[in-house]
# Entry
Amino acid sequence: MKLFVQLFHRLDQSTNVNQKREALVWYFSEASDIDRLWTIGLLSNKRPKRIATIALLKEWATEITNIPVWLFEESQHVVGDLVETITLLLPMPKKENEESLSFWINYIKNLENLEEEQKKEKIIAAWQCLQPTERLLFNKLLVGGFRIGISQKLMVEALAQYTGIKGNLIAHRLTGSWIPDNITFEKLILTESPLENSSSPYPFHLASALEGGIQDLGAVSEWSAERKWDGIRGQIIVRQDELFVWSRGEELLTDKLPEYHPLADLLPNGTVIDGAILPFKNGQPLNYNELHTRLGRKNITKKAMDKTPIIFMAYDLLEWQGEDIRLRPFRERRHLLQQMLSTYPTQGILVLSEDIPFDDWGQLVEERALSRKYRSQGLMLKRWNSSYSSGRQRGDWWKWKADALTINAVMIYAQRGNEGGTNLYSNFTMGVWDGDLLMPFTKVSGLTEKEASEISAWVSRNTRERFGPVRSVEPVHVFEIAFDGIRSSSRHKSGVVLRSPRIIRWCKDQSAREANTLNDLKAFLELY
# Structure
């Protein structure tokens, strides 16, 4: 457990992706096979079942510490997290613990069928021999709330670096219904699967953001245009009668997209299509957040599929009849893609991203202005004679995003961040006017280090209340907030949630009363 605690500290105390990857590589090189396996399981959301509620842990903790409930609640108010509050208020352990991570996970699993009093006895016994951070992790596992800010992609990269096995092969091996109880580290990670080489995607060709005027691109006849759809870039692969769906982030998503599974029978072997994994219903795209929610589900039910159906918006054909055709001109690949989709009906699972006809650049300016009408992010411009290369190649593919939406809002809460290696206030909750009250509606960042330093000094002098790391401040400062999308939300008090909100300007020339209203914000919903 001590080794896992060191990993937790290194991951928790760094925001640098390279440092987090190095920490994981270090841990995989030091841990036992069974602890490596359980760590992979925990980071892949394969946690033990919840054994106790937070309410029970709170009851038992106040009982053995003799702390009154009001004091516990005040402590929680300062700390912010209930599990961490329990951990901090428990007395220091009476003895040392040298057991491993896998020991404590099995300890927790063995509590499942015990009566409440037996669970209480066992949990208190564990508290009495676990150090504070060990106890924190133990408690989070008990209540099923264990999370570390590590993406699947980062873990795959660390495993690839540690083992010397390619990342896409590691990603393939981590798919499926395995759990640490029914497999070994060697079988899961080190053993080659007969299908994994067939599943390998091609490196993605990435577009650059358009800079300068569109007229600088030259002759109109050299270019194609299509909508930039707000989904997840991916590749669909059919080889050896098997289907594989990869995201651009090298995540194998086949199991999460059961509506795509018929493509294994509908498409010929030796087919690779580039496109977007897109939520789509009643002939139009859904909000990106719905895709994120759908893919985040552990179990994909028919109800979830009916609520958020997902299509594949096809952009390009990379392999046809087993031949790599990436070096052929885009015009030819596109023609083959159209032929394939007309020859092999795909039951609406695959949808061709249509060309936008245009005779001059002015027409595309008008089309870009209509992006939100089509629920797209803007336009994609591709040179007709371009090959499909690897990575970001400037000059052949451009993304021309629609202008961001903006609104002026008042800062009402501030929280420290780690910008520039300092401990400045740089994360803020913003509000808009709802009558005479400020309604919080989003959290943002985006100040320069100089601005963050200035606002931090002001926050220190103008704090109203403290809520753990959060400070309530005088509603004085107005900021212009940009965002790429908006949708209704019954989960938020404001009734809306924004896509990619960020600060673009500190409006020092405006008073708080000049900021926008909640009605102004909700008016943007009509664009969607």
Observations:
- The chain has a mean pLDDT of 89.
- Residues 324 and 395 are 23 Å apart (CA to CA).
